[in-house]
């Protein structure tokens, strides 16, 4: 929740509604058409009284001129004695869902306010700008109002600053003042629930997709290793030390979560069209669904794009973050990243391939756009850097609805190339859900055939079975 924690300081409003110095000048600039008319009539009457020598006309002119000036003074003195706050519920919503914004105005002065018009600045994609008319607010009182926002387009949208329009009872002066605080509404991709499938770790009888890997503490391995700088001397294996003639320490291991990489192809040349129903938005939503589902299944998940950037990225030990209690934070970080991901200008997937060269990736789930022969060959080589690999390849011709329709035989050829490289490759057409393709991938024998295959780094894959 953000708030103008104190009453608004005296200031002037510029063209953006921001405050600066010179409040009286801004108050005079806030005269309405009625106020300016009264002031002009009063000045004209005063001039005419001087020319014509009519004292009564001078009194009328003074009355007409003083009334709007008094209203300006009243509004100028009372416009700073309110404080406002805003609260989002929730602050992160899926595309197409609604969020509610709660506004609260507190009168912190000893005098009641006049008529107030409250409005909040909202991007046009979230809906019309909300406006509320607040009647008299008693001293120390508060008023609470709320409105709903909704967007079919993911992104980060600023809300605010909150603005108050102050009026005098005669409608002579109208001033707009803004609080400095604002909030950000994050619209994340739609996350589709995916069906549960059986993972390789479960088939091996070692829990929920977990495998064993070398670590610093845990059960002792029967095979010692040479002493390294920084090793605890309490781990020295004296029998092996006497046998080999050098310090040997016990090598230890502990359970570790299976790892997974979700690869998202964001190349502009690979996706045609735009908007909430485009192929690119389907790929982003699919990547979000897969990442969240695998995190819930106990996987350490990394989100990788064709630019080579990863979220949250490998840790210093080469593993994947998002384990244990922080999986919810990792999911939130990935969704926030996918909320603002956009097309890249990359021509190929070489950077993603370089990011996968370290091996030990476990399960690889890729959401790919249109592939030419060169890129399909490179994606095929990615398979050798991972354990189990599943690719969802979008059919550009079907998504473009005839505006751009490549040879359908080209897609079949690319899928064949990926399958020959060991991928489980499925085409994606409009109307197909991620859950349907997830089940199809589980039903294909290519996944089960490679489940539990040892990796070059000595671990076991975290694929499906």
Automatic annotation (TrEMBL):
It comes from Streptomyces milbemycinicus. Residues 1-11 have a biased composition (Low complexity). This is DUF58 domain-containing protein. It comes from the Bacteria. Residues 1-20 are annotated as: Disordered. PANTHER family: SLR1927 PROTEIN, SLR1927 PROTEIN-RELATED. Residues 225-308 form the DUF58 domain.
């Amino acid at each position: 929740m953000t708030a103008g924690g104190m009453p608004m300081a005296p200031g002037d409003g510029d063209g953006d509604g921001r405050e600066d110095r010179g409040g009286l000048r801004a108050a005079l600039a806030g005269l309405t058409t009625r106020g300016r008319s009264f002031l002009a009539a009063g000045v004209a009457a005063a001039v005419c009284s001087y020319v014509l020598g009519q004292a009564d006309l001078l009194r009328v002119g003074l009355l007409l001129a003083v009334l709007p000036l008094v209203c300006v003074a009243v509004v100028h003195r009372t416009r700073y004695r309110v404080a406002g706050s805003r609260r989002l519920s929730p602050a992160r919503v899926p595309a197409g869902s609604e969020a509610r914004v709660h506004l609260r105005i507190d009168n912190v002065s000893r005098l009641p306010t006049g008529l107030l018009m409250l409005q909040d600045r909202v991007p046009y994609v979230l809906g019309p700008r909300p406006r509320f008319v607040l009647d008299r607010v008693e001293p120390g009182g508060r008023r609470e109002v709320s409105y709903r926002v909704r967007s079919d387009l993911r992104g980060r949208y600023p809300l605010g600053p909150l603005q108050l329009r102050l009026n005098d009872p005669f409608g002579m002066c109208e001033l707009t003042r803004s609080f400095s605080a604002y909030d950000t509404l994050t619209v994340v991709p739609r996350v589709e629930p995916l069906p549960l499938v059986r993972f390789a770790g479960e088939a091996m009888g070692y829990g929920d997709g977990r495998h064993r890997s070398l670590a610093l503490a845990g059960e002792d391995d029967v095979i010692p290793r040479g002493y390294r700088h920084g090793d605890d001397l309490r781990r020295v294996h004296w029998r092996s030390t006497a046998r080999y003639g050098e310090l040997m320490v016990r090598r230890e291991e502990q359970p570790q979560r299976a790892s997974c990489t979700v690869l998202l192809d964001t190349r502009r040349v690979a996706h045609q069209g735009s908007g909430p129903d485009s192929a690119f938005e389907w790929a982003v939503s699919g990547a979000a669904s897969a990442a969240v589902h695998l995190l819930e299944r106990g996987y350490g998940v990394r989100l990788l794009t064709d630019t080579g950037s990863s979220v949250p990225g490998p840790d210093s030990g080469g593993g994947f973050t998002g384990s244990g209690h922080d999986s919810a934070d990792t999911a939130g970080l990935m969704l926030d990243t996918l909320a603002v991901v956009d097309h890249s200008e990359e021509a190929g997937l070489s950077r993603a391939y370089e990011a996968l060269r370290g091996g030990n990736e476990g399960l690889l789930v890729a959401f790919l756009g249109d592939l030419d022969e060169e890129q399909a060959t490179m994606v095929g080589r990615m398979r050798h850097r991972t354990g189990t690999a599943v690719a969802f390849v979008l059919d550009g011709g079907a998504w473009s609805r005839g505006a751009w329709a490549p040879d359908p035989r080209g897609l079949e050829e690319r899928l064949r190339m990926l399958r020959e490289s060991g991928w489980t490759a499925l085409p994606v057409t409009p109307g197909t859900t991620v859950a349907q393709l997830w089940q199809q991938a589980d039903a294909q024998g290519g996944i089960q055939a490679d489940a539990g295959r040892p990796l070059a780094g000595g671990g076991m894959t975290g694929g499906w079975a």
